[in-house]
Design brief:
Strand content: 15-25%
Keywords: Nucleus, Repeat, Ribosome biogenesis, rRNA processing, WD repeat
Protein name: Ribosome biogenesis protein ERB1
CATH topology of one domain: Methylamine Dehydrogenase, Chain H
GO molecular function, one term: large ribosomal subunit rRNA binding
CATH superfamily of one domain: YVTN repeat-like/Quinoprotein amine dehydrogenase
Largest sheet: 5 strands, antiparallel
Subunit structure: Component of the NOP7 complex, composed of ERB1, NOP7 and YTM1. Within the NOP7 complex ERB1 appears to interact directly with NOP7 and YTM1. The NOP7 complex also associates with the 66S pre-ribosome.
Family: Belongs to the WD repeat BOP1/ERB1 family.
Number of helices: 13
Radius of gyration: 62 Å
């Protein structure tokens, strides 16, 4: 036996049944452990020989030795060196034996050794087809260290639970389809003893494939032990390797690297300078406060011990609590007062209404006692809708502005300080049988002309309301026409009244002014017949470029847009001096300030919608070759050679002298109705059918300076006061007239002051039509209005 602490010999190959190696010469070796450590250069072959082989095996090996060839001895020796001993305990029972030092080489030592192989009992002896002996070795069974990753489990039952075989004598089938019998179980006493004296590696688990106990191997137990004591599980890692001192503690004279220092080590850093300047700017702007006193974050948290704790539950800044449901009211009581109960008509009306239009989502009912109240049938639906509102409806925090509402109202002067302006109806002019579409006041302010759908034009005395003159311009032949517009000539010495009815324009000199004025008017109208000859038209049409929506047009001398004819004897008897016949219905007329020109608008006439007529020469001309959109109204500038053309969406300003477009105003309304020009010429008012009144400052921009939304229906007319008073008014289909104060300052840096003054109501609304036209008195703060009720009214201060 080897002493404790001695080195064990190399692994020995035992081949008791394969072959036997005999030594021809035996040498005695002394047992000495000290000399054995020094025999590193010698090979001990004593371990390769089995001294305990039986005599039968020796005889068998002598007979077999002659048949074995010498060529296979090296291969057999290598195979035997690679085998492991079957019993490790045999290695522990042997000791290394020392041999005397010998200079004999290894090949000389092995030359005297003869190795014979012994056949294993498991080997099968057979021959090939040619008679050559053949040895069939047993099949190699893969072990844990094997690299056979495709090997299947011993039991091939698959995913079938092992409990399915509890009543059967077998627990499954192997790969060949043979039954795997259930392992024998000991008695209850043996099982009890086994549970008390647990074997090494016991887990208490059963192997589902074999039915036996599933125990841990020695390698697994050793791995668990290393994990428990925090040791490395890899034996190849040495945690106590010697330290390699790459840099010693001794100070070196020469540097380890000879790389020169970079230049950036000796110059200021630009990146640091940028960061410093960024901090400096933040300090200057106040975003960073240097030397700010530190705030003690660990302040004492004092709270009300007996409070409800609601003040402590402060929501996060991004938290939006769901709105609470409205508390129930008296009408939701099971015994509500009588005034909350609905009768049969109200219940029927409630059922006919849409659910979204109902004031409440239930019908109040009365019960005698609380125990008679049934379950609320709408409870599930209301809970469901409430849930939808909570998780689907977005929540938005509306920040309330702490602004005094009165500060938003502009500081306007009191209307009492802005008098005079019309406040009441003083005179009514009754006599027409149809709605009065238009009215006009003469330059003297004494006579009022009104035109109605009954086909007549009446002239009234302003102060008394007495009818002084009447003329019928729509007869039985043209009963479908209406009086669209009446306008007095601004020249007070002529007394000419222009009336448009259908396709005709009648120039009338009413016999109310006296012989001198009547004679002057007739002579002015009749003096132009000498010029009404073809080929003698003195004025050519305006030539305007495409950008200004006007194009050059070479008008033929013989082409006429309107005919100047003498009226019939019936018309002459009524005071009609001259008739101008146009192609389409004339909707409006507007005079030039000198009284020699007037412009007419025929929206249905296409390119010749706008015609400029001259009384002194009886000529008519169309300034536009092509009209964009439907023309609604046209006005002359008060003192400049300019014309304002109002279409449905835009207002264009043209220069008649230079024949160019000066400006295009964008009111922003859908459908404009009328326009009017301020007496100073630098402001414009526009009314629209979408209930708006727009004030344009021509010196500022093309969009409106102010938009007034006071009317409830379409605005029909808008007028400035031409007598120097800062007043303007608007008339609408809602039957109301709004009077405003509009001061225009001489200082161009000061905006106009607009102040609402009075709302005048008196006209009746008939067939959705209210006040159709208004006009200011030329000198006083009086306002005339006409409506669909067939009455004209005078509003005074």
């Amino acid at each position: 036996m080897a002493k404790k602490g001695s080195l064990k010999r190399a692994p020995v190959v035992e081949a008791p049944r394969k072959r036997k190696i005999e030594e021809e010469s035996e040498e005695s070796v002394e047992e000495s452990e000290d000399e054995e450590l020094n025999q590193d250069d010698e090979i001990n072959v004593n371990g390769l020989i089995d001294d305990e082989a039986s005599e039968d095996e020796e005889e068998y090996s002598e007979e077999e030795e002659e048949e074995d060839s010498e060529d296979d001895s090296d291969a057999e020796f290598n195979t035997m060196l690679g085998d492991e001993p079957e019993n490790i305990s045999d290695l522990e029972s042997l000791e290394f034996e020392d041999e005397p030092k010998d200079n004999t080489s290894i090949s000389d030592k092995l030359s005297n050794v003869h190795i014979r192989s012994l056949s294993d009992a498991s080997d099968k002896q057979t021959t090939y087809i040619d008679g050559t002996p053949r040895v069939i070795k047993p099949e190699i069974e893969p072990v844990y260290e094997s690299d056979d990753s495709d090997v299947e489990n011993f039991n091939t039952i698959g995913n079938i639970p092992i409990s399915a075989y509890e009543e059967m004598p077998h627990i499954g089938y192997d790969i060949n389809g043979k039954r795997i019998m259930r392992p024998a179980r000991g008695s209850a006493l043996e099982q009890l003893l086994e549970s008390i004296d647990l074997p090494e590696g016991w887990t208490g688990l059963l192997d589902s494939n074999t039915g036996g106990n599933l125990n841990l191997t020695k390698e697994e137990i050793e791995l668990i032990r290393k994990l428990e004591i925090n040791q490395s599980t890899d034996d190849s890692i040495n945690p106590y390797e010697p330290t390699i001192e790459w840099f010693t503690s001794k100070q070196e004279i020469m540097p380890l690297t000879a790389t020169p220092e970079p230049k950036r080590r000796f110059i200021p850093s630009k990146h640091e300078a940028k960061r410093v300047m960024k901090i400096v700017r933040a300090i200057r702007e106040g975003r960073i406060v240097p030397n700010k006193p530190a705030v003690d974050e660990e302040e004492e948290h004092n709270y009300d011990l007996w409070g409800d704790g609601a003040q402590d539950n402060v929501d996060h800044i991004m938290t939006l609590r769901a709105p609470k449901m409205a508390p129930p009211t008296n009408e939701e009581s099971y015994n509500p007062p009588e005034e909350y109960l609905l009768n049969d008509e109200e219940i029927a009306k409630f059922n006919e209404m849409e659910p979204s239009e109902r004031e409440r989502n239930f019908i109040p009912k009365k019960y005698g006692s609380l125990r008679k109240v049934p379950g609320y049938e709408e409870n599930i639906r209301e809970r469901f809708e409430r849930s939808l509102d909570l998780y689907l409806a977005p929540r938005v925090r509306h920040n309330k502005l702490n602004i005094d509402p009165e500060s938003l109202i502009p500081e306007l002067p009191s209307p009492k300080d802005l008098r005079p302006f019309p406040i009441r109806c003083s005179t009514s002019y009754v006599g027409h049988k149809g709605k009065i579409r238009t009215l006009s006041i003469d330059p003297s302010g004494l006579w009022l002309a009104t035109g109605s759908d009954d086909g007549t034009v009446k002239i009234w005395e302003v102060l008394t309301g007495r009818e002084v003159y009447s003329i019928r311009v729509v007869g039985k032949d043209n009963d479908e026409d209406h009086v669209e517009s009446v306008e007095w000539n601004p020249d007070q010495s002529t007394g000419i009244l222009a009336i448009s009815a259908g396709e005709h324009i009648y120039l009338v000199s009413p016999p109310i002014f006296g012989f001198d004025i009547e004679n002057t008017g007739r002579l002015k109208l009749e003096s132009g017949f000498g010029f009404n000859k073809f080929g003698n038209v003195k004025k050519n049409d305006l030539n305007v470029n495409e950008d200004s929506d006007l194009e050059e047009e070479a008008v033929s001398n013989k082409k006429e847009y309107a005919r100047w004819i003498k009226p019939s004897e019936e018309m002459i008897a009524q005071g009609v001096v001259l008739t101008v016949e146009c192609r389409k219905t004339v909707k409006s007329i507007s005079w030039h300030r000198k009284g020699d020109y007037f412009v007419s608008v025929s929206p249905d006439s296409g390119n010749s919608s706008v015609l400029i007529h001259q009384i002194s020469k009886h000529s008519s001309q169309s300034p536009f070759k092509k009209s964009k959109g439907i023309i609604m109204d046209v006005k002359f500038h008060p003192f400049k050679p300019q014309i304002f053309v109002c279409s449905q969406r835009y207002v264009r300003v043209y220069d008649l002298a230079q024949q160019v477009l000066i400006k295009k105003l964008l009111p922003g309304a859908r459908w404009l109705s009328k326009i009017d020009i301020h007496p100073r010429g630098d402001h414009l008012l526009a009314s629209s059918f979408d209930k708006r009144v727009l004030w344009h400052d021509l010196d500022l921009q093309t969009t409106p300076y102010k938009t007034l939304r006071y009317h409830e229906k379409a605005v029909r007319s808008i007028k400035y006061h031409k007598g120097g008073l800062p007043l303007f008014a608007s008339a609408s289909d809602d039957g109301n007239i709004h009077v405003f104060h509009g001061t225009v300052y001489d200082d161009l840096m000061t905006n106009p002051l607009l102040v609402p003054l009075k709302k005048l109501s008196g006209h009746k609304v008939i067939n959705s039509l209210g006040v159709l036209d208004i006009v200011w008195h030329p000198k006083e703060a009086w306002l005339f209005s006409s409506g669909a009720d067939g009455v004209a009214r005078l509003w005074t201060t």
